[in-house]
Amino acid sequence: MGYKQEFKREFNALSLFCFAFSMMGVLASVSASINFPMSHGGPVSMVWGWLTAAGFVMSVALMLAELCSSMPTTGGLYYFAAKLSMKSDKDIGWMPLVVWFTAWVNVLGNVALVASIDWSLTQMVFAWVTLVTDGAFIPTFEQTLGLYFSFLVLHGIIGSLPTKILAAINNFYVLLNLVATVVVIVCLYALPSKRNSASYVFTHYDNSYSGWNDGFSYVLGMLNAMWTLCGYGAACNIAEECRDAARAGPRAIIMSVVSTVVAGWLILLAATFAVTDIDAALDSDFGMPMIHIIFTSCGKPAALGLWMLVILVQLFTGSSAVIATSRVIFAFSRDGGLPFSNWWSAVNSYTQTPINAVWLNVLGSALLGLLGFIDQAALDAVFNLASIGIYIAYGIPIFCRITIGRSRFEPGPFSLGRWSTPIGSIACAWICFIVVSFLFPYEMPVTPTNMNYAVVVLGAIIIFAGIWFAVDAHKWFKGPRMTIEHDVLNVVSSGQEGSSPTYSFVSSVKDEKFTQA
């Protein structure tokens, strides 16, 4: 597809699934965000909100799986958008602008995802310390920020390791994730002396916290599912490090989403049966309702051990997120989309990984953490941007696939066939609906402290990227560009002055080539 092979293909179908599954870190992600359904509908949102969101997310995952099978490259989302947004072989139309926005929201969404994961990890550690000290220890913001930086550095070190080691780590991590998830679920079912009735779990709706009407509160409660079921598209970004990526990629995406949906629902179901006082859980000194639920249900000794498992799962989730984000940065830089692109697209000769891109990710996430000095609401806005930005980046190539790119799409081994258009339409409609919904404040009435500033951050990103493209980037950024000389997908930025480059598909025995004619 036009790119020189720069990575070793050390991932196989199993390790790629492990990577995609670890990106979502179901046990830790559900534990970190369970406060959303608890405060926006209670049991009904916890149990049914998850399944509602999961059903629509599956349509997005199926479309990404089809795109990944057709075009398995580290460029992923914005490469898909590039190939499917051209008007014709001779007219690239708005393609550079489409690719530009897709890449920017994807990069910033992934950087924000790393920040949100490591910040949650920090809060989990301090919640564990608070439990150890029986509430005597209350962390300051400076202590939280220091531990947050430490985790970012640790994840940067892990992300700089050779691909073979990263694949082995992820194989171990998925085992830890599964074992930890099963242990926590079993303990929440087996140990509590008191538990809620099935009628309460499946039918009780409590909307006394949000201030929104019942319907919209239910929608906002699904942020728990959308934040957890986010990042599975990272399997696309590891394609150039995986053998038989056209088959392994879609399998990893679909299987990881299905596994996370099932595991996440069982965790939420167990927690809903166990939590007998939602008010106390939400107002707990631990700062995280899930550890309060485990503590009151299983006792202090068990809670210390179970919460440590949650911490370990989140620790490895953070390392997976750094790896995935570094590949997104690398791919965009390889096509000249970032300042100092030659530096960020460099691949270390020893590790065969983009180490510079890893540490740019660490630096970007660290800077996002500094927003906490301004206001906690500003910090929350950045973290909310993670799922919003990533799902916008998912939606753009899917929309291109079912509209202008329908005739240009070359199916891979996994194809939805005639179902692509209806499934893609559902996916796009869901993304538009949920992104707009998550830009609203989560509580009413709105105050400066509970305002959802994600709309401000997203608007600033779009304006910044748009102005940059209009003023300067349109002169030199033309989308993906070749790194080898012949038989490539070549969307070039060069050309004879006064003439326009012509683009055409050239068939070959091995694959479809896209070359400049």
How would you characterize the overall build of this protein?
With 517 residues, the protein is an all-alpha fold. The chain has a single domain (13-516), classed as Amino acid/polyamine transporter I. The protein is 64% helix and 2% strand. The chain is built from 21 helices and 2 strands. Helix 6 runs antiparallel to helix 16 and helix 8 runs antiparallel to helix 16. The protein is globular, with a radius of gyration of 23 Å. The two termini are 16 Å apart. It is a multi-pass membrane protein. The chain crosses the membrane at residues 12-35, 47-80, 92-113, 145-166, 172-191, 253-275, 304-324, 358-379, 385-404, 416-440, 452-471. This is Amino acid transporter.
Query: In the CATH classification, which architecture applies?
Result: Up-down Bundle
- Could you tell me the mean pLDDT? 83
The number of helical runs is 21
Q: State the fourth-level CATH superfamily.
A: Amino acid/polyamine transporter I
The radius of gyration is 23 Å
Please identify the structural class as seen in this structure.
mainly alpha
| CATH topology grouping | Amino acid/polyamine transporter I
Strand order of the largest sheet: 1-2
List keywords for this structure.
517 residues, mainly alpha, Amino acid/polyamine transporter I, two-stranded antiparallel ribbon, globular, disordered C terminus
Architecture blueprint of SSEs:
Layout: H1 13-24, H2 26-33, H3 35-39, H4 43-70, H5 76-84, H6 95-132, H7 141-159, H8 163-190, H9 198-203, H10 214-220, H11 223-228, H12 234-237, H13 245-274, H14 278-282, H15 289-298, H16 300-334, H17 341-344, H18 355-369, H19 376-402, H20 420-437, H21 454-471, E1 503-507, E2 512-516
Antiparallel strand pairs: 1-2
Helix pairs in contact: 1-8, 1-13, 1-16, 2-16, 4-13, 4-19, 4-20, 5-6, 5-19, 6-7, 6-16, 6-18, 6-19, 6-21, 7-16, 7-18, 8-13, 8-16, 15-16, 16-18, 19-20, 19-21
GO molecular function: transmembrane transporter activity
Membrane topology: Multi-pass membrane protein
GO cellular component, one term: membrane
